[in-house]
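Meet today's protein:

…
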Amino acid sequence: MLVIDVEASGTEAHKHSIVSVGALDLANPTDRFYEECRVWDGAHIMDDALKVNGFTKEQITDPKKQSEADLVHAFLLWSEKIPDRTLAGQNVSFDRDFVKYACQRAGHTDWPFAYRTIDTHTLCWMHMIHRGLQPPVDPRHRRSALDLDAVLNYCGIPEEPNPHNALTGALSHAEVVSRLLYGRKLLPEFEQYAIPW
């Protein structure tokens, strides 16, 4: 399983750009990937997105940084050796779609990843139901309130630090997957946090 987290210049993969990718191989969690890039020419930039990921406009438009195309080439090359490249993460369709659009912009014609993914939100929802717990619902929007911080807290882990970092996000997702699926800790970064069930 390839656990991934993308930080981007906004929320829509067709008009915003990747600014960083963090990933690791769940079966070999010391095999990690983290790289940053500048946005593609013409990409939209949302101020709110930059508040989340901590990058400045100057950083994500820096001509000295590699292009989004170069980053996605490096990511695909890194991922080729992973036996199971099923993508996993929190709201992983966001990450999958950003990588897909970046691949298209970079001229990749063969999409190497499946559309089927493993979402930590769904894993946590199911885990709670199996334990007889009611997953939280946002009363205003009448939808699941299991964002990444809620899932981390449920698994005994503190909230993700701000600003968000793609590698920190990928590590958090991987730890959550291990705890929810296998009932065991995975990474030394989270060793001090007990599994609460």
About this structure: The chain has a mean pLDDT of 97.
